[in-house]
Amino acid sequence: MLPRKRPAVFLSLAVLLTSLTACANAPVAKNLEQSLAPDPNLQDNPVIFGKAQTNEPPTRQNESTIQLPTDFPKDIPLYPNAKLEAVTPVANSENQVSTRWVSSEPSNFITSFYRSQLQDNNWQILQQPPDDLGGTFEARRHDLALKVAIQAKSVTNPAPNQPQTATELLIEYSPNSTKTAQNPSDVPQPGDPTFIGPVPPTNLVTQPGSIPDNQATPTATPGSQVFTDLNNAPLELRQHIQDLAKLGVFSQASQSNKTIDTANSQFAPAKTITRREYASWLVTANNAMYANHPAKQIRLVSTSTQPAFSDVPAKDPDFPVIQGLAEAGLIPSALSGDATAVLFRPDAPLTREQLILWKLPLDTRQALPAANLDAVKQTWGFQDAGKIDPKALRAVLADFQNGEQSNIRRVFGYTTLFQPKKPVTRAEAASALWYFGTQGEGISAVEALKLKLSKTSSLP
Predict the structure, then answer these.
(1) How far apart are CA 144 and CA 166, in angstroms?
(2) Taking 60 as the threshold, does the pLDDT of residue 23 lie above it?
(3) The CATH number of domain 83-177 is 3.30.70.20
């Protein structure tokens, strides 16, 4: 019986609509129209699921209300995925400010970011981590001092699907000074301990290198240089070049021969180094490392000495260096019993096996161990060990015993091919000279630079 009621319902609705249309101006119709009209209060404050909405933006309970200081320098790079946690003044400092940040991304991402940002934006890097696992950057740009400490830390009670670790950043800076010197003599000049670069490329006084440890050192030292093309060097070798440049190795070595384009501040890291150039760098670097140990220095020879090589006469600008290496028995010559080594070939490319053969005696400071082809194959595992000159086998084997301080590991990284006859680049040669000694006892360019600076500062 229920379906029979539908026609009656439809008929009632039709009558009602007809009445409304016919009596649109009638009071009853007006009242009915108003009762069906939308509530104007709901138009201004709509309700969704029972909750009134307002024109005010929603608030985020977890959003940080901490803001950077208004004078925060725009030059300081900020990691895009880091959240500001705190801003505090540094104790015992008048204008130094510390900001603390937290990021969910790994520390190696952040370290790599700051390494590239500081280098690309012409900061003078006084200190930087030796790898991308974290550490401290110290840098200067104009009159702004910056310190960025990056450290991974574990997260207590992480939210679901959130990483178990985070990275904390501490960015400390001293705001730009508004002090203006009254006359040019008040402005620190290159060579002054208070000078802060960067210096113009033509003013080859400071080297914006960095010291891969936890202590920053001044960047202005006599004889240090600035190179503008180090981006062409492998990333792993750039720091070695910078440290040696700060020590003044290249400027001293280039006094007798133009191995470096000082006019354009070009190091040419990918260029093949000659035997002459490497001999000059080798002697200069060794003597700079052992500046306080005359017994470990290589003596230069006077031009009155009988030449050991027919193609390096006494009038050659590098004769004192090359002859000094021969006199010390550090390179093969007739003086060391090699009757076939009558030519030095100063302008020939330096090969990998020659680099190791000349350098290892200055690392071990003792006779090289006996070696054969099988011993080199078993230790290094070189597939091309049979191509190594027999005279260089002992040096290659001795280099393996230096562990992480091995020249081959430092310069060429992991490899199963030594390629002994391959020419060496200038960047690779510099990396080999960055450290002298064995794994247990030696000295790096960084340590030598500190000794040089401490000695200079103690002078009256």
Answers:
(1) 28
(2) no
(3) no
